[in-house]
Amino acid sequence: MRVTVSYCNGVHGWRGRMAYEILAAADYFTQAVIQLPLHGDLSYIREKLQAGLARITSALYEGVRYSEIPTIFDFKGTYFPDQNNSP
């Protein structure tokens, strides 16, 4: 992972920033995944998921702001379930 992060830091412009944000999100999601089967603290897991989503959002903003085709990074129609969707 460190090699990939170093490489992304060397890529200038929005693509490098986007790649770095996606890597950061992957790290947060990985930390959450490690805790789930261990019955880890739910608050900690939520915190990592929330941080990962924030990084994904930042990555998408880079694509929307600076890419030649911003619409391909527009996920405003993405739906996230809530407690009202439980059976």
Tags for this model:
0% strand; 64% helix; mainly alpha
Descriptive report:
- It is a single chain.
- The protein has 87 residues and is mainly α.
- It is 64% helix and 0% strand.
- The chain starts with a helix and ends in a 21-residue tail after the last helix.
- The mean pLDDT is 88.
Biggest sheet: strands, sense, closure?
none
- SSE order: HHH
How many DSSP H or I helices?
A: 3
Number of strands: 0
Shape descriptor: flat
Q: What fraction, in percent, of the residue positions are helical?
A: 55-70%
Structural class designation: mainly alpha
**Mean of the pLDDT scores?**
88
- The N- and C-terminal alpha carbons lie at a distance of 39 Å
- What share of the residues does DSSP label as strand, in percent? under 5%
Low-pLDDT windows of residues: none
What value does the Rg take, in angstroms?
Answer: 15 Å
Brief summary of the model shown:
This protein has 3 helices and no strands. It is an all-alpha fold.
Secondary structure layout:
Elements: H1 2-10, H2 14-35, H3 42-66
Helix pairs in contact: 1-2, 2-3
